[in-house]
Amino acid sequence: MMIPPNVHPTLFINKDSNYILFKTAIYFAELGLNVWFISPKVFDKIPDNITSPDKETLEIITFVYLQDYKSLINHLNAIHLWHKMPRVIILAGFETYTNLCKEKYNPLLSGIVSCSILDSASVCFKKNEKPTFIIASTEEVPGTYMDRFQAIHDLYFPNVIEQGFCRPVSSINSKAKLTL
């Protein structure tokens, strides 16, 4: 899979990612970028240690709760109908939508979900005419499933942040400039 130009996908692997994902959503919203925060579970409250942002910032973040991969695919396939295109797509619970950590793993499903995310981000770029960022978050990777995550990384998510540090990836061009 070739990553669309001006689409910047990152796979974030961390056991307790809600705090970081919320901080990231707030950060981008404070910069004026529309954010979609997609999660399979409803959040009851903002994580501890995060000051609630002002009303204007919260209005830039759209929280979308989609329970399974079918709901996610339907939502992403209708992205061209939205009037408020995101510049940042944060996807919590990536493993829920891709069944990466299930006994009955289906690599085709993982590929379809990953391609749909990239395709939607590409549509966002075309509409916004500005780069689009994807942050797909998943829990820690059990060693028995590492090959599955490696395939997702190799094909769809060249950037990986794992356990609080950024791991260099050979496909990243160090001279490339990322502009918001």
Write a concise keyword list for the protein shown above.
180 residues, alpha/beta, Rossmann fold, 7-stranded mixed beta sheet, 36% helix, disordered C terminus
Cα gyration radius (Å) = 16 Å
What separation lies between the terminal Cα atoms? Answer: 24 Å
The main β sheet shows up as: 7 strands, mixed
Number of strands: 7
Q: Beta-strand level of the residues, as a percent range?
A: 15-25%
The low-confidence parts are 165-178
CATH topology of the domain at 7-44 and 53-135: Rossmann fold
Individual helix count: 6
Task: Kindly describe this structure.
GO terms for molecular function: single-stranded DNA binding. The structure is a single chain. The radius of gyration is 16 Å and the shape is globular. Helix 2 links the parallel strand 2 and strand 3 (61-65). The protein has 180 residues and is of the alpha/beta class. The chain has 6 helices and 7 strands. The protein has a domain at 7-44 and 53-135: 3-Layer(aba) Sandwich (Rossmann fold), CATH 3.40.50.300. The protein has helices spanning 18-30, 55-60, 69-77, 94-98, 107-128, 146-155; strands spanning 7-13, 35-39, 61-65, 88-91, 132-138, 159-162, 165-167. It has a 7-stranded mixed beta sheet with strand order 3-2-4-5-1-6-7. Helix 3 runs parallel beside helix 5.
